[in-house]
Amino acid sequence: MPIDFHPAWIDGDLATYRDTVTRFVDSEMLPEDAAAREQGHVGHALWRRAGELGLLCSDIPEEYGGGGGDFRHEAAFYDAMSRRGLTGMSPSVHSIVAHYFLNHGTEQQKQHYLPRMARGELVGAIAMTEPGTGSDLQGIRTRAERRGDSYVINGSKTFITNGFLAGVILVVAKTDPSKRASGTSILIVETKEVEGFRVGRVLDKIGLKAQDTSELFFDDVTVPADKLLGGKEGQGFYQLMSDLPYERTIIGVLAVAAMEGAYEATLDYVRQRQAFGQPIAEFQNTKFKLAEIATTIKVARTFVDRCVAELVAGTLDTATASMVKMWTSEAQGKVIDECVQLHGGYGYMNEYLVGRMYVDARIQRIYGGTNEIMKEVISRAL
């Protein structure tokens, strides 16, 4: 009997929802993936189509235009994309932005932005990282200066996922430069409604070729004071930290799904590929490598499923979320490296799924907080 990696959190209703997600991914994302990798983004039409089908903001309450589900509905979308090596859309970052609004925004901000994000009319991005700061969010230099009834934003950001297509950006900025964490706030910028905002180049990454990742520039960008997330200055760092378990569980979901997709593709390949008169699946080394890969995936799936359940229950702590992000992203790199090896020279070709997955996997150990930062967070809970 084949080894089953079926997620424990998929029940009857979720299985039906997952079928809808799978049809969308297979019929509307896969055929356009090569073109998206060529141009560096998927365009707005795909986002709007996902919104029409109710696939965006699926765990946002219905009263704000969302799907009224929970994190498992989000995970079904991430899982379907990741196991197919599809990276063009980043509904995960979009949903992270939506949760900042849901968890920290004023009622007016929730009502104004969440329905439009759920419909795919506004693509969401969060602008944290700056040249020279990396993981040190307390060291950011972007400034939001209060002038009367407005804030004036100056600074630059880099490595911003969804930055090219973004219609709404949460900008992490200093409202009080004399302070570190307590001087940080988050400002809401609607990109089509302000002057002085500019998207720089779409960055040339070694992986995630279909995903738009951009530089952003803010030159005297003026926004009304009611665009301060939550309406109170100095809350930005707290807001960022409180939503990290959500983000890091997403990375775990992406990691285990990618491992499963690479394993399935490799299993098919070694059963068909002949060497020395027999399929390479018949060689003992191949069997043992596949056994190791399957075991790693099974362990990863068990850990991720537990974290998904705890996140839905509201009991997932920051240390455990950091563990699942660190461990699964490390395992993803090792597993897909082995899959490339089992493909031989073809594994190094972009036309093969495992080749694309190989370069895409590397960033998982960096974004969402580097794995070195994860170890620091975990060590504080010892």
Query: Strand portion, in percent?
Result: 5-15%
- Using only CA atoms, what is the Rg? 21 Å
Number of E-type strands: 9
Q: Given the structure, what is the number of helices? A: 12
**What is the approximate shape?**
globular
Average residue pLDDT: 95
Structural class: alpha+beta
Helix content: 40-55%
What does the main sheet amount to?
4 strands, antiparallel
Secondary-structure element order, N to C: HHHHHHEEEEEEEHHEEHHHH
Q: Please list the strands of the largest sheet in the order they lie side by side.
A: 2-3-7-6
Give the end-to-end Cα distance, rounded to a whole number of Å.
41 Å
Low-confidence stretches: none
Considering the chains and any ligands shown, give keywords for the structure.
382 residues, alpha+beta, 4-stranded antiparallel sheet, 15% strand, globular
